[in-house]
Amino acid sequence: MRYVSTRGTAPALDFKGVTLAGLASDGGLYVPETWPQFAPDAIAAMAGLPYAQLAQRVMQPFVGDCVTPERLLELTTQAYGTFAHAAVTPLRQLDERHWLLELFHGPTLAFKDVALQLLGLLFEEFLAGRDDHLTIVGATSGDTGSAAINAVAGRDKVDIFMLHPHGRVSEVQRRQMTSVLAPNVHNIAIDGSFDDAQAVVKRMFNDGAVTARFGIAAVNSINWARLMAQVVYYFAAALQLGAPQRRVAFAVPTGNFGDVFAGYVAAQMGLPIERLIVATNINDILHRALTTGDYSAGTVTPTAAPSMDIQVSSNFERLLYDAGGRDGGLIAGQMARFEAERALHLTNAQRSSAARWFGSARIDAAGMVAAQRWAYDHCGEVLDPHSAIGLAAARAAADLPADVPIVTLATAHPAKFGDAVAAAIGVQPALPARLGDLLERPERYDRLPGDYASIRDYVTARATPRPG
Description:
By secondary structure, the chain is of the alpha/beta class. 43% of the residues lie in helices and 15% in strands.
């Protein structure tokens, strides 16, 4: 399997290369040269597999010869053995049509664990026996940071620098990052939004003076390996609901578009997905792009669902590339205009292709709370704000065939947003016992201005340069 950049000029890489590189050298994102596909019989044969085996089966075509099937199974078994539920990503039924896919049983209680527990092992696998060092630089709107830190804390040959917007993540989200005191972990609270943090990270990947000295790597969903691992749970859910004989729809709360793009990848591989419903909060750039073709960034408005408080969705570029006929020159031009003007318009071909797979909904605070109350009153389910936004979008979907089940991705444990949950339904969710002392643990982080030079100088003063 070879990978190409969405902007058309970076060299093609194999799976190992894209895992260690993250962002392409031309500023684009890597995607497979072609989508691997499974025939219906091959999908049917996956039914009933334990999650680690299913993950190996789904991911092997993307990994190619870089990791043997036997070794990949060892890695998936190790990665998912840390989860608190034997099913890893269990399904829960809400009513005759609606289901929740619980993605928060990993060590940091969010869906990011599903990918990052594996990504940490892949970094270690590819660095083994090499005189090399990785400097991971990432931005988080709340959950990526804790999941990435958990996955690499204390590992040899890796430093991690994680940026989060000061005061714009929940206390639990912050403490899950800042209470990890391993010497290779560096937390940075920036004055600004997640979009500001993400822009700094992208700029650092394109700063030749930095990349010449340090092996800069990504854990955000710009890294293909992370997105690849998220494809698996779409197969897991659909198989339990009757795939490939039965089509399934998914409602996905999303800000950076990575989680829902993984569903699109699953569909390209042959999984019978009827619709992918993109659920946004009032920071609705994705909803506007999919309904009107207007991909224009506004000002980020803080909400009770901070992981979705994003106005620049990095992974949307991957969809624009695939939906636009895989024309790297077109995407390079579109993204240059977006970076200059903070706006672009989808072509007719991009809009038409996206509409084949995607619907969307904009859910405001009242709609989010209404979904939380419905889930609690009618189903006894306590939902975090992000999952509630996904459920609200699922319940608003009016144009799906009546026999198609709708799976809402429950992306975080409600205790990560306990105050918002309590305000909505009057119930304060408790942290699982394994994190029960989180709020008493000591913290360590540094607060910096949101400008590039300050953060670059901080990273380069503390990171380990490449040998030689």
